[in-house]
Amino acid sequence: MQDSRNQNPAVVMDRASARIIDNASFTIPRGSITALVGPSGSGKTTLMRMIVGTQANVRGEVRVLGQRAGHPDLRSRVTYATQAASVFEDLTVRENLDYIRNIYRLPSTRRDEILERLELQNHANTICGRLSGGQRSRVSLAIALLPHPELVVLDEPTVGLDPLLRRSLWELFHELVADGASLIVSSHILDEADECEHVLFIDEGRVKHATRNEVLASTGADSMEDAFLAVMGR
Predict the structure, then answer these.
(1) Which of 67, 75, 85, 136 could be a cystine partner for 71, CB 3.0 to 4.6 Å?
(2) φ and ψ at 66, to 5 degrees?
(3) CATH number, span 1-77+150-234
(4) Where in the chain is the domain with CATH 3.40.50.300?
């Protein structure tokens, strides 16, 4: 789904008797930010898990960076920050990053760089269980960014953050793309989709991919929020 040179076959994902993803087929170009939007329960998290290769019962082929999703060669190239912060709450922020850093055999300078980039250096020695929800989410994002990933999949990364920190994170996301990374960002905050070049709309298992400009032009909307309401109302 990340190599724009190849067209992917349709992908289906069923759970029990329900079809969660229905014949999805799309290609996302590298070096871009893609918004993943849709109503609650529409399958956004399932689609993200399919992309990172952790979703079972998938029929069809999902290819990421030229490899089948979940291939061992992608373990440091594709990272995923879930909506619930993935941290060890009994460890400090630094210890959490060091645990993952040692798995990837990264130098301590990389840890310090990420702490500073996410404005966590003043919390480095704080036990994660004592942090606010927004701070824990930033630690989870820091872990996802540690190995210099080429694709970062983010599930609601700005939930619980104040407007200033949200703006800071989006500036970081654009910096990551300028450095060569690609991002897929799930969000319920529709004005955040205005920050993205590409959009994946998902509803009742159906996935539609378009550029932001194509979405606005096809709906006649002035904002992605209005466009989302127009698309969902069809």
Answers:
(1) 67
(2) 85, 0
(3) 3.40.50.300
(4) 1-77+150-234
